[in-house]
Design a protein that fits this description.
- By secondary structure, the protein is of the alpha+beta class.
- 19% of the residues lie in helices and 32% in strands.
- A hairpin with a 6-residue loop joins strand 4 and strand 5.
- InterPro entries: C-type_lectin-like, C-type_lectin-like/link_sf, C-type_lectin_CS, CLec_Tetranectin-domain, CTDL_fold.
- One of its GO terms (molecular function) is carbohydrate binding.
Length: 125
């Protein structure tokens, strides 16, 4: 009943949802925070798969709640904590300070990317 045609997924104690909109990183984060959550931030394989199922449903890359820290190529959560789980695509991250956001590909792997591109909004609650 809660799947809403694949727009909502549960993994552990997190719920992931998308409004289907493609916007830049700041707008995506703002929409999620307005709804009482944050950008989807997979912390393990199960959560990554839940986000991936939404990404596949829309066939769109999505921004994740991960950003580049002060040190180039060092990525962290939005609360500035270091990553405890990652699923980088081969040869990624490679932006070396020029690509501060992270997107999920339609195969579930991650890529560092500029923050001003339009990507699918996927939030977590």
């Amino acid at each position: 009943v809660l799947t809403l045609n694949g727009k909502i997924r549960k993994a552990g104690d997190k719920i992931f949802a998308s409004n289907g909109k493609k916007v830049d990183f700041a707008s995506a984060l703002g929409s999620c925070e307005e709804a009482g959550g944050t950008l989807a931030t997979p912390m393990n394989e199960e959560e990554n798969k839940a986000v991936l199922s939404i990404v596949k449903q829309y066939n769109q890359y999505a921004y994740l709640g991960i950003k580049e820290g002060e040190t180039p190529s060092q990525f962290e959560y939005l609360n500035n904590m270091p990553l405890s789980y990652s699923k980088w695509h081969r040869y990624e991250p490679n932006g070396k300070g020029r690509e501060k956001c992270v997107e999920m590909y339609t195969d579930g792997s991650w890529n560092d990317k500029k923050c001003n591109l339009y990507r699918l909004t996927v939030c977590e609650f």
